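TEACHING EXERCISE
Course module: macromolecular assemblies
Task: Read the component lines below, then compare them to the predicted structure of the full complex.
Student: A.B.
Group: 4
Components provided:
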Amino acid sequence: MSTNSTTKHAGNVAALLATLTKDSLAYKLVDVANNAEPQERAAAVAAVLQERVKALSKELVYAKDQVD
Amino acid sequence: MPKIKWIEINGFRSFGDGPQRLEFGSPIAVAWGPNSQGKTSIAEAFEFLLTGIICRCELTASVQDEFADSLRNAHIPDSATVFVAACIETSTGATHVLRRTLIEDYGKKNKCSSSLTVDGKPTNEDELNKLGFQLSTPPLSAPILFQHTLGYLFSATPKERSMYFKRLLEVADLEELREAISEAGKLIVGDPPPPLLALQGCISTLKNSAKLQGLLSSVPTAKAISSAFSETASDLLKAARVQVPPDENERYAQVRDLLTQLRSKTFPVAGLTVAVAATWSAPADATWQDIEAFLKKAKEVDEETKRLSRLLSEVLAVPDVAAITSPIDCPVCATPKALTPDRVQTIRNRLTANRDYDSSRRTAESALRDLEGMANSLARIAKQLEPQPIALKREWRRKNGFAIRKVRELLGTSADGLVRDWLRATAQLLRAIRAVKLATTDAGNASKTFTANLANQTSTSLLRELFEKCATACQKMRDAQDRYADSTTRLKSELQAVIDKQSAVEGWENFLELAASQAELFDAFAERRAATMVAYQHIQAIKEIDRAIECVLEAKFSSLSSEVGVWWDRLRPDEETFFYSVKQRPKARRTVDFKVGVSLGPDRTKAPLRDAVAVFSQSQLHCLGLASFLARSMREPNGFMVFDDPVVSSDEDYRAHFVCTVLEELINQGQQVILLTQDQRTWKDVSELYASKDVDVFQITRDTGVTTVTKTSDGLAAMLTKAEPYVRNEHPKMRKRAAEILRDALERFCKELLVKNRREQGEAAAKITDYDGKTLGDLFPKVNPLLKDPSHPGKLKFMKGALNPGKHDDTIPSKGDLSCALGYLKKFRADYLM
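Instructor-supplied answer key:
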């Protein structure tokens, strides 16, 4: 990506992020994808989602322990 | 912003071999040529130089091969290089020469390739950014307007038009980002966790699985899972008419017993259990060192002391002997007075000198016991590893029906290989065990013998050799055991399925395993639930991102609409039908509409809106395309714009506004404009209207298939060229004509020099027409102070005198005078104006 395109891309992403709520999942995914190399974006976003699955899974198990 | 000082084209499109150079000294240039003379080739040369492609190929080629071999002129020799070069001046005043050379033309299946240099150094497109070029996303990268770019907007499919604007508004990158985020959703939706897969497998094979089935419909609580398993166990036992214990764990134990019984009735699969034996290691070096240390010590101690050391120790242990002060009778041989205090001291000294002997012996004896124990231990391990059917003896096999014939019956002929492998592995293991037993027997016996004759041993080599044999045999037995375990597992697995089917206990084993790992099952349910929730959140996030991209795009569309509107109004002021906006169609992300207001009067506020494509004439659509190009180019100003016939010649009003208003506005905004037109009137109008800006005027012609560009606006050069054939002619009329042309050229030189001087002094508005009506007599006093060479004022005066008669119909100047005047003027032009 040329310097010029990089600048435009940065501007576009900044405008996009400004439209999204900062603590939303959408914001986080855009941020993560934007900070990854183009060919690694999907994997980087998937890693975030997997972490989320793990955390949520732990919460559900913890809730079970509390009930037990 | 960079400005173009000149462009040179060689072998590109309609240009022949031999560089054609167009020099630009003014902020505006106009080139005229009839159709098919090479105007578009010039515009495409600019585009090729900056981008390495021509967008016509990208936008209009329905199939790639239409553009095959299209960049290289078909008539130039193969050895000719195809290139486009340009000299640019950056905003800092620095000049650079860009040159792009065609390496490979468009092919039937491949794109063209080229190399770019800046000031002779190879570089890439990033360097253009550093020089101040702001190229957009391909294929509409360069600030060059073509006829096909104008028409494309309205003839494109909705999807193509949408992509055009997304490229124009530079949001294609956000679409790519969104696609990557969307793609990631597929990566988290995988197979269910292993415990859930096992449960699904269990349910599909187990009868009475209705209670377990209920678990799959939602995320069950731990209690629900426990209850479902317990009740299923109860159902299995009831179906087998077995009493159901109240305790849950007892129920599973009962099911296990029942399963074993039922399986055993079909085949005693317990006979295929693989033993797990303890580990065994060969004797450590320390063991051998202990024994060998004793053997060394034994050599050092004299035989008599070795023989009597115990006896003497016992003698000294007698209190009366240890403490004698005078001779006493020997307690061993009863010789009277034989044991004197001196002799006791001698005995004591000898024993002290050899006291390590016994200690070393004890250590060696202990090591030897260890060796014997290790041999026995390995023998026990070998016994433990005996294949179960062998270990369980023939009576057991007969009683329980464990027979290879039965195995073959159950598995059928398809499992012959499996059975053969198992039998081979069993035989190998038995041989290996036998070898271990023999080796351990030998090693154990040797250890015993060695211990019994320890005092007479001299070397451990035989013993070592026997234990090395044990180690080797042990390793072979382990390897054989691994192969046996592997083939047994495979055989058992195949057999188990058949046995379970014949015993009507399919799924029981899985059921019991799952019942024992309910916590893992609950965790798996939680994980699946979490994955489902995150997948839903991901979909919602994508929707949010879509909405956000639309917002970004809407803002850009809104801004672009305003800018297009400004240019539209410059091109078509006072028109009742007007451009309103360009925007995405609501709820149709891939459709972009041009909206126009259809007004009946000057008040546009209540004008109904319609689609441009439906309402606008062809001329208006072209105008809208031009306004869109101008808006886009001014968003990312490059310092120059190239227009290839932007106005339809028949559209007089529109043409006039473009020439008068738009071009002036572009120049005022600091843009260099290069206009290529087939319309002679536009050419003439621009030449005259912008004469004060010394507009560069070119004429494009094509002869024998090759485009030639002539600069017609350099008045002095043109005059001198024009005079040359007349000067050489002998005919008086011709010489008179030469004198007239050269006299005009002399006036022109004076005026150009004065204008140049004033501009250098900061008077940017100085122009040739300021001196209209002035004679050489008026001009010389002003020019003379500007001449650098003292001989030049005289030469000016000579020319005036020599050329004057021509104008006033006096004596015709001689050929020599004319030649001198022509030579002087050429030199003056070179010295003062170039």
